[in-house]
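Co-fold these.
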Amino acid sequence: MKKPAQTSATTTDILMVSDATLRGFVGYHMKRAFNVVQADLVRTLQPFELRMLTYSALVLIVDNPGLRQSQLADAMDIERPNLVVILDELEGRELVSRDRVPTDRRAYALTATPAGQLLCKRAVAAVEAHERALLSGLDDATRATLVAALSKIEKSGKSRA
Amino acid sequence: MKKPAQTSATTTDILMVSDATLRGFVGYHMKRAFNVVQADLVRTLQPFELRMLTYSALVLIVDNPGLRQSQLADAMDIERPNLVVILDELEGRELVSRDRVPTDRRAYALTATPAGQLLCKRAVAAVEAHERALLSGLDDATRATLVAALSKIEKSGKSRA
DNA sequence: TATTAATAGTTATTTCACATAACCATTAAG
DNA sequence: CTTAATGGTTATGTGAAATAACTATTAATA
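Predicted complex below.
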């Protein structure tokens, strides 16, 4: 009788690590799944030299031309100071422009340049394709339930912020 | 005729920011929902003086007494160097101990002290309670679908790591 | 109107979660 | 026995967030 391949000559005891307790939490599953999605997103955006934040900022500016930095920060759920570097980068690449608002000389109106709009369109298309591939294992009904559940969770947080 | 409350004397134009494009991505919903869950988790763990990482490390050690740091790093999907500080903290608080493995004097076997086990039990209970509250809007079937979908997404990433 | 308070954006600094490179000790392989 | 690989560590860097404190400007109020 052959000994089963001498699995571990080294005392390493390839005992699988159990994460049973953590698996009991929906949050744990969310983090793990999101890590996968995010890693994919980062790879997808790399050719465009966009990061998650520059990407979502750009998309929001394209979709909401003329909005203020504070509105954008609000929409992105980040603090104003963090937005500054993001916009510095986008502006430096001439993808968006900060234009003074004549009626309020404190504020800047954000708009995407033609180059920014083009890059945005391409990036969005790429992300769509990648996400479609990543979620190909889920049928439409499941995907809808997933999104609905996530929305509900998100909303339930808005109350006790 | 009363003018409708002069909604904005300032030109601020309270125009709602549209995130319609981003809402088209499941990943966006995942991030938003996870932010809520994570914020809740952080608040929940604060009384125990645990952060997400110290918490999950502790739980995994309790569930897998004797495991090595590299196994733990692997299970937590982080690099070994990052685990060092986490364990320094847990060991400093005498919640876990690093014991030399006699058969391999390079490695450390990680075990939770009684204090660590107790804290772990309490923390897990608290997180369970909080998560139950957070997910109270979802019925069991939806929750099951959610977890199944997230697991599938997670797995689909494991192939193309 | 003059002063105070609030707002928009910025700078500086910090924390946390992660990654890489390089190193020491020890063990395994050639 | 020399070389590889492994387990843990140190040092260091990056990206995503937050806070405090500042300037310029606009709104509120006394």
